[in-house]
Write a structure and sequence with these properties.
Blueprint: H1 5-20, E1 28-35, E2 41-49, E3 53-58, H2 59-67, H3 72-100, H4 104-107, E4 111-117, E5 131-133, E6 136-146, E7 149-154, H5 157-163, H6 167-178, E8 182-186, H7 187-195, H8 203-206, E9 216-220, H9 234-244, E10 248-254, E11 257-262, H10 271-284, E12 298-301, E13 306-309, H11 312-319
Antiparallel strand pairs: 1-2, 2-3, 4-6, 5-6, 6-7, 8-9, 9-11, 10-11, 10-12, 12-13
Helix pairs in contact: 1-2, 1-3
Length: 320
């Protein structure tokens, strides 16, 4: 006998609640509706612990399985089994964060940078300490990595106050953990080394200028996604300038990629247009899964001792 929609929904809720039993009191089972951009309403069976995570299944999908003679109860149990495996991992991660946030002597070992487009995610800046250069913002996060799961948690003002430290002290410790792993390599050398599975030379340590290039890659071997954080580190930026013996432009169109190019390489008429076109082309070539930043040009000034955004007026003066 073909079940009606309401009967099928009752069976779905009963199946889920019996499967969860008393072991998961924080997980709620409910139905919710969502209207898309075309004003089409979709109803979902929502299974969620609002403090941890959840997942949902379209009710129509369950009804289709029922109409096709498939075992809806067995399907729900399989989906729940996979969900609960991930749920336990995430729940453990939140317990880890709660523990670590109580003691800075432990927390400092898990500090990592988080770099993002400040304009695109401005609401994230309200309750969290951050540093900003133009549209690029830097926050300190706590990192959890275990059993194939990687999660980060932002650090708010209340947590820093509980730790009894300042924002500057926290950022200093963050950079200190990774500073020895920062490298500067010529872009051509980097490409060659990647193709031949070799380690590139680190100009920040060797200071070797014999193979001077017009472009360099700034990276950090202990950070895989947020190398752009080091544009906020004046000590590293000064080292780069000392090696290049010049001010330099910083091109960072995604969080895991920083291109350094000496200012002296771009003097002369129309060179600013070429540089802007280069930045635009990098944006076009970005893969969809990369964490994109803004299409802005930045420069490290030895006189100022920091990275600043190059204004349109300054671009015009440089082009002249």
């Amino acid at each position: 006998m073909l079940l009606k929609m309401n009967q099928m929904k009752e069976i779905a809720v009963k199946t889920v609640k019996e499967y969860l039993g008393e072991k998961y009191p924080g997980i709620e089972v409910e139905f919710e509706s969502e209207v898309d951009e075309n004003s089409v309403t979709t109803e979902y069976l929502m299974i969620s612990d609002h403090h941890v995570m959840g997942f949902r299944i379209p009710v129509e999908k369950l009804f289709d399985k029922c109409r096709n003679g498939e075992d809806v109860e067995e399907y729900l149990k399989e989906e729940l089994g996979e969900f609960l495996k991930e749920y336990e991992k995430v729940k453990e991660a939140y317990a880890f964060f709660d523990h670590v946030k109580e003691d800075f002597s432990i927390a400092k070992e898990y500090l990592v940078p988080y770099v993002f487009d400040a304009e695109a995610r401005s609401t994230l800046l309200e309750n969290h300490p951050y540093r900003r250069i133009g549209d690029i913002a830097l926050e300190c996060h706590l990192l959890y990595e275990r059993d194939g799961l990687g999660m980060q948690m932002s650090i708010n003002h209340d947590t820093i106050q509980k730790w009894g430290i300042t924002e500057d002290e926290m950022v200093e410790l963050l950079f200190a953990r990774h500073q020895e792993n920062v490298y500067l390599a010529g872009a051509n050398e980097m490409e060659y080394c990647i193709e031949n599975e070799k380690e590139p030379g680190n100009l920040l340590k060797t200071g070797d200028k014999s193979g001077a290039e017009t472009e360099y890659i700034l990276g950090c071997s202990s950070l895989y996604d947020y190398e752009a954080a080091f544009i906020f580190n004046s000590a590293i930026m000064k080292k780069v300038a000392d090696v290049l013996e010049d001010d330099f432009y910083v091109i960072s169109v995604c969080t895991d990629n920083v291109i350094i190019t000496p200012v002296g390489c771009w003097s002369g008429a129309n060179r600013m247009e070429e540089l802007h076109e280069k930045i635009h082309q990098l944006m076009v070539e970005m893969e969809e899964d990369r964490n994109v930043l803004s299409e802005q040009l930045m420069m490290y000034s030895r006189e100022l001792g920091k990275v600043v955004v190059v204004t349109e007026e300054e671009k015009g003066q440089m082009a002249g």
